[in-house]
Amino acid sequence: MESSASMDIAKHTLLLFGIILGLGTFSGLIARLVRIPDVVVFLLVGMLIGPGALGLVDIRSDSTVNQLILIFGSSYILFDGGASIRLRVLKEVWVTVVVLATIGVLVTAAITGAAAYYFLGVPVIVALLLGAVLASTDPATLVPVFKQVKIRERVAQTVMTESAFNDAMGAIVTFTVLGVAMGAGEFSAADALIDLLKQSFLGIVIGGVLGYLAAVLIAHEKFDFLAEFAPVVTLMAVIGAYMSADGLHSSGFMAVFVFGIMLGNVESLGFTRSSAESHQLEDFVMTTALIMRMFIFILLGTQVDFALMNQYLWAGVAVVVVFMLVARPVTVFVCAWPDRRAKWSFKELLFMCWTRETGVIPGALAGMLVGMKAPGAQIIASVTFIAILMTILIQATTTKWLAKKLDLLVDEH
């Protein structure tokens, strides 16, 4: 009987996966026809087929299947983003990236928290907790957008790199504030800074070491005995980088992003690969990342809780408007404008102000707070859902239009 029950569950899960792949493929085609980022259509389709509408797909956010897709999918998308980063570009903008990913998270959290305190009327500590959850940008959303919309290289890579590096800071701030809110401790700037440096350093080292090792095995003149298995190496190394970093209590996402940077810059490391091998690996990574996007954003759409959102709808919308139109612009100008080395133009800064989609990472943090029964967790989850919908549906959709208006669009031909 047990095996029969297990078989039924397996078949049902396989059916759900088939539905997601089928609808995802169709959605991707629609996105290409109407020329908008596919994550937008995936999210809308997910909302349509979820329990709140047609009820075709119902995978709980706390289920093992969902967590597996979330962790591996986000990691692989982040690896894909890292592989598109060029070290020569990072050398020019690294100061902006570091300041945005650290001080910028605090600035965004403070301003968003103030808006939550005013519009939602929640206690200060709950407002700050909401601000911390929303403070980090979302690499799983931003990387696919910039893969599809060709923006001036240094702008796109700055925003993608910021999104990869600030998830650690966002999580640290969130759980530091949570400790205060639940009476488990007091805020210590020194402890938070040490924790951030530790997480960042370990994540970078792990990603760098595994990335270099992978480059040796698939691109070294003498030791490239896994060159034919380069796609499999990326799968193994992404899992290895994330799990190694997570096991050492550092940022798994940072590790996979740095791993991607190393593998995407094998020429800078002194290795060479044939064009055929490079195209084979690029095709595999592109296809795998597309499948991960389908699953992540369709499932994210199915898990939108309309009843919960409706409870705090208008106040939540007001908070998100401040978050988008005040917190992000202030953060960008405070953190990026003083970087004399990068010499950002006003148009570039304006574009970075608009590109700060919220998605998987803040959604996961909000879900964790609900599971831990944190103070104000339901309100935080409600506003986080609103932020995810507003930023993805409004900002991701208008990214290409704004880039064209600001003359930041790169000719794809």
Describe what this molecule looks like in 3D:
The protein has 413 residues and is mainly alpha-helical. The radius of gyration is 21 Å and the shape is globular. It has helices at 2-34, 38-49, 64-83, 87-101, 103-120, 124-135, 139-148, 153-181, 189-219, 230-247, 252-264, 275-302, 306-311, 313-336, 346-354, 360-371, 377-405. The protein starts with a helix and ends in an 8-residue tail after the last helix. The chain contains 17 helices and no strands. Helices cover 77% and strands 0% of the residues. It has a single domain (62-405), classed as Na+/H+ antiporter like fold (Up-down Bundle), CATH 1.20.1530.20.
Integer count of domains: 1
Task: Give the fraction of residues assigned to helices.
Answer: over 70%
The separation of the N and C termini measures 60 Å
Instruction: Name the shape in a single word.
Output: globular
Number of helices: 17
Profile the largest sheet: none
CATH topology: Na+/H+ antiporter like fold
What do the pLDDT scores average to? Answer: 84
The fraction of residues in strands falls at under 5%
Specify Rg, calculated over alpha carbons: 21 Å
SSE series: HHHHHHHHHHHHHHHHH
CATH architectural grouping: Up-down Bundle
What is the strand tally? 0
The level-1 CATH class: Mainly Alpha
Structural class: mainly alpha
List low-confidence stretches.
Answer: none
